[in-house]
Amino acid sequence: MLSQLLKAKRTSFSSLARCFTIKLPDEPSFLEQVGLYFDQAAKFTDLPQGLLKYIKGCNVVLSVKFPIQLTRNGHSDLHVIEAFRAQHSHHKLPTKGGIRYSDDVCQNEVEALASLMTFKCACVDVPFGGGKGGIKIDHRKFTEEELQRITRRFTVELLQKKFIGPAIDVPAPDYGTGPREMGWIMNTYTAYNPDDINGHGVVTGKGIRQGGIRGRAQATGLGLYFAVRETMNVEKNARSLGLSVGLKDKKVIVTGLGNVGYWAAHFFNDLGKSKVVGVSEWNGAVYNPDGLDVEALLEYKQKHGTLLNFPGAQNIPNPDDIMSMDCDILLPCALEAQINRTTAPKIKAKVIGEGANGPCTFEGDRILNEKGCIIVPDLFANAGGVTVSYFEWLKNLSHVRFGRMTKKHEENSKSLLVEKLENKFGKKFTDKEKKLIIQGAGEEDLVNSGLESTMVDSFKQIEDIKNIQKITYRMAAYILSIKKIALSYTDFSYLNISKEKQTNKPKSKETNHVPRNEWFSMVMKRNQGIQNLRERVVPISRTESFGRIFGTKHENIKDQLTHEIILQLIMQHLSTVGYKKTKKIIQKDSGVQYIPRYLRDSRLQSLVRVAIKNVDTIWDQTLDSQTTQTDFGIGIVNLLSALGYERGEEFDEELTSIWEEEQNTSIIYEEKSVKKENPKEKENEEEEKTENVTKEIKAASLNQLVEFLTHETKPKVLWLKTFLMTYQSFTTPRILLYKLIDRYNIPKEKQILYQNRVQQIKLRVCNFLKFWITDYFSDFNEKLLNEVQDFIENTLINDGFKGMAENLKQVIERNLNSCDSKDNSNFEDPPDAKLPKNIFSPKLSLFDVDPEEIARQITLIDFSLYKKIKAPEMMNLAWLKPQLKHRAQNLIALNKRINSIPMWTATMILKAPLLKNRTKMVSRMISIAFHLRKLNNFSSCFAIIKGLSLAPIKRLKFTYESISKKTLDTFNSLASELNELNTLNKYRDLLVKINPPCIQYLQLYLSALKKIENNHDDYFNSLINFKKRRLIYDVVNSFQRFQKAEYNFLSVYQIESRIKAFPSLEETILIQKSLKCEPRRAKREEIK
């Protein structure tokens, strides 16, 4: 349904809004109408006339004309396009407003809409000034390619006049435009401003994939629903109209089944329990007093292009006549000036909710007020769109995705709460009830929650002013907006605005009452420090709902912490971080014995963290890609990790116990054919292999994976290896350890079920732990290792597993002692280094060193980085993501080094000014690459070949002609091998034929990992995609294959230091030097 609506949004809205600039006879234009409302409201403000005049007028209007070459009837001609952009108010920046494509658009129209946008934003506390734009074209008469050219050209005009930018002016869709046009504008802006990291915030109303926000499509309709709902929840309003409080069973008529009209009708039906009895479109209307099925009506309209003849409904050919039908609430959501001096007297509705801009003329408004109707004005009622646009803009500037930070934690906590309630009261919730209670807040939920809070808060402010001044909601909304804008301007010291002299009128009791929004503004003005703090934190805490979601709930605790509880907290904390001696001393001195508990973190630490909002942006505020390269930055990373701020992509910690998760309900298998070797195969190689079909895990939860890998039957070793190598792509070592301990501690009620399998499961957990410590000891930091030792000493030994406990202790001790040691016992004496005579000379250069020795020293440098690369460094594309780069320091270092070699190669060649020296350097580089290949250093070997193939080097015709045929054959052979090894499978075939040691072809493996990440999601139906992890395991395991086979060469400091400090010029400079060495069309005799 939503996809159908969005597909037809532009066409439908076009039909409904084509008459927007109507000016009825004897009635003011839209711009004049806004001015009249402003003047009426200004009388209640007691503000200086100069300031009111400044607020009312449009600040600046841009009117441009630009030529576009268009083809019509086979003839190409130059068409002049006229466009406008108005910025009404700069009291807040950026200015905000849509861009419309219409033949009828004019300067007066964009000024009127911009002014309305200013007051609308101020009314709902959205920190934007008002803006509006338009291009004077009928978008239906242009092709998509032509519209794109026009849109991009207009964007360039705005850029040249500084009329666009995330902090200047932010356009949005309007009549004739949509996400497509916003994408073109954003793309053009970022192309001209590549360094603007906030470029996605230059427009709102984008598609989700372009940085848009969920919930934007329905925002205006939902905001309209909230506005009318709040109005009808006021008992005095309902009583004055002779209606019941609330929206339930109210008859509703909607004019216009476009985007706003459809969603308004949908929410009034679905949330308000109202009854939509009539709907109109530009070519007719339908009415049914028993109610209409809005979803079916939209489908019918999409199929037939009209509402007429909808089954079960009365046809009304003239759409204006629908407003005279019986109803309680009328929602004009289509045209300007629908309700005028002609139609207003016929309206039977008692409540008018203005979903469109200016649907009610000045005369129509007067007539309805005289009839006693309540009008919820457009100024407030249709502000949902710009409110959610603000959320989108804020999202783009914050570089976050709302709803990610607390979702999983809330779901798990609420799941536990639901389970406890079910157990206590003996009643089971239905699946629908559970989903309603448990499901965490996603981005759309947060947007809708923030929108609701904004509309409710704004209504309360409008209601206060209405009751005090005894005026209409429209006047109250204008007064509220004007006062907020005035307060913004009076804060500008350069204006130096003071109130005009007040008349000494006696103040009544009512005028002594100050509305809370005015009181709040007064307090903020008097306390600048508080005001400044509020301005800084407003993106996080601007609405009550956002505060409730991200904040910590407070409760009054009557019981004080006892001395014993405080000591327990301190001892548990110290035990967690490893200060065992301190714990023993406190136990001895206090006489209080500590009882070990297996919690996620130190309880003391957890209590401290409760006071701090767990904001995901802590990484963005603290670290950047450069900071993480320093010791200071790494220290911050370690500190944040120790505090539990470990960053993941999509997966939060699973708090559900293994024993509490439903069994065999979520795991997904896939069948895999495995060829089985025939025993007689050696005798007859042509004998066919038999095939077995085995089950492989495709996707499972973390609990399920841990359970299967510690099953009482022996699990597959390959599964275990795959899990341990890749688990840090979806969880952390700390969580995994707690899962293993959880699996080991079988609940008593489960032990009866498992009977004689209990001991076997516990042994499997111990074997898993042993395998983990043996092969991945680097996963264990000091804190985690202390917890393992605590588990061994206080659990395994007490349970009678003394032998296994001693075995694990020995494994830990062996790894601790071997961390810094290097085993060279299997090495023969290294070959003598090929040193030049001037090895100790400060003028030593690579010309002086044997190419083979250079290759050896390069290989030693490369291998020192290659052997340190751990599996987690290759997970989640960590080397590319700023928030994960601290995990991939060795991989980044090696990749950076390999990527710099081509430029170094070219630099060394072009630094030689004479042809003979360049020829020698090229030959030397080829020789170095040849020896690197002999040493199986694929990364550096192929990097040099790439350097020799760079354009500035490849064009050196006379240099290459001077190289010997043997050297050129060597180069061509290596280049041919590089071209052939374009896939990992071909490269693996080559690896079978070589003997270690070896340094893998790094770029090929990184490309393979990128391909897996792009082609496979991390999660499948909310489960961990284990199939993806098997693919990653194959790649990473192959890459790490030669890490333990070291090279047996002597390191020569003098050569090594020069290699590490090799020069590297930029490509533009290399091209200049190349042209200088061998100019274009130069002859051989001209080259020195």
TrEMBL record:
It is found in: Mitochondrion. Residues 671-691 are annotated as: Disordered. InterPro entries: Aminoacid_DH-like_N_sf, Glu/Leu/Phe/Val/Trp_DH, Glu/Leu/Phe/Val/Trp_DH_C, Glu/Leu/Phe/Val/Trp_DH_dimer, LisH, NAD(P)-bd_dom_sf, NAD_bind_Glu_DH, Ras-like_Gua-exchang_fac_N. Residues 693-816 form the N-terminal Ras-GEF domain. Signal peptide: none annotated. PROSITE patterns: LISH, RASGEF_CAT, RASGEF_NTER. Keywords: Guanine-nucleotide releasing factor, Mitochondrion, Oxidoreductase. It catalyses: L-glutamate + NADP(+) + H2O = 2-oxoglutarate + NH4(+) + NADPH + H(+); L-glutamate + NAD(+) + H2O = 2-oxoglutarate + NH4(+) + NADH + H(+). Residues 671-683 have a biased composition (Basic and acidic residues). Its EC number is 1.4.1.3. SUPFAM superfamilies: Aminoacid dehydrogenase-like, N-terminal domain, NAD(P)-binding Rossmann-fold domains, Ras GEF. One of its GO terms (cellular component) is mitochondrion. The keyword Mitochondrion applies. GO terms for molecular function: glutamate dehydrogenase (NAD+) activity; guanyl-nucleotide exchange factor activity. Residues 850-1080 form the Ras-GEF domain. Its main location: mitochondrion. The keyword S-adenosyl-L-methionine does not apply. One of its GO terms (biological process) is small GTPase-mediated signal transduction. Belongs to the Glu/Leu/Phe/Val dehydrogenases family. This is glutamate dehydrogenase [NAD(P)(+)].
